[in-house]
Amino acid sequence: MSNTSPSEAVSALDTHLGYWLRVVSNHVSHGFKVKVEAHGVTVAEWVVLRALFTEDGIKPSRLAMTLGLSRGAVSKLVDRLVAKDLVSVHDDVRDSRAQVLGLRAAGRRLVPLLAALADQNDAEAFGHLDPAQHASLLTTLKGIVERLGVRGAAVD
After folding, report:
1. Does the domain formed by 14-122 have CATH 1.10.600.10?
2. pLDDT at 6
3. Cα separation, 24 vs 27, whole angstroms
4. Which pTM does this prediction carry?
5. Of the candidates 60, 26, 39, which has an alpha carbon nearest to the alpha carbon of residue 112?
6. What percent of the chain is predicted at pLDDT more than 70?
7. Which of 7, 10, 64, 152 would disulfide-bridge 74, Cβ 3.0–4.6 Å?
8. pLDDT tens-digit map of 78-117
9. How far is Cα 119 from Cα 117, in angstroms, rounded to an integer?
10. Positions in the chain short of pLDDT 70
11. From CA 14, how far away is CA 12, in angstroms rounded?
């Protein structure tokens, strides 16, 4: 029989960094989700749009690799964006068996607006940090991601 009571043997929820990361993540993610969905896209669709803004004319397989998503997930997201007239799919002029993805005019106009919302969302959550704190937190989080071998875009 143990000399400790059950409450002493079990760590408190709020002593875990993961708990606090989740609280912050949920708040920041939900705020951004509400903002982008007001413009007719999901966070996952925004991630695809932002990637295409940087690398227009990319093959779906390369986009999947870049984002760390499955080809099936990218295909579903692209289909939804095509239906919203934000993305186009064309045959690759260098390889007739392949396709390339591109932003349509509406998609190209939408990305800077959504990027501004992402900036606003970050400022709301982290704007109180001084530049050194911000840089330190960013470096710490990126280091954790790298150490854990986390792959893939944050879409949920």
Report:
1. no
2. 59
3. 5
4. 0.85
5. 39
6. 93
7. 64
8. 999 999 999 999 987 787 788 999 999 999 999 999 999 9
9. 5
10. 1-7, 155-156
11. 6
Token pair listed for 151? 């792959």
CA–CA separation, 121 vs 124, rounded Å? 5
What one-letter code names the amino acid at 133? Q
Query: What are the boundaries of each domain within the chain?
Result: 14-122
**Exposure pattern of 89-110 as b/e (b: 16+ CB <10 Å)?**
eeeeeeeeeeebbebbeebeeb
Give 98's Cβ-side CA count (13 Å radius). Answer: 12
Query: Which two three-digit tokens encode residue 100?
Result: 């390339």
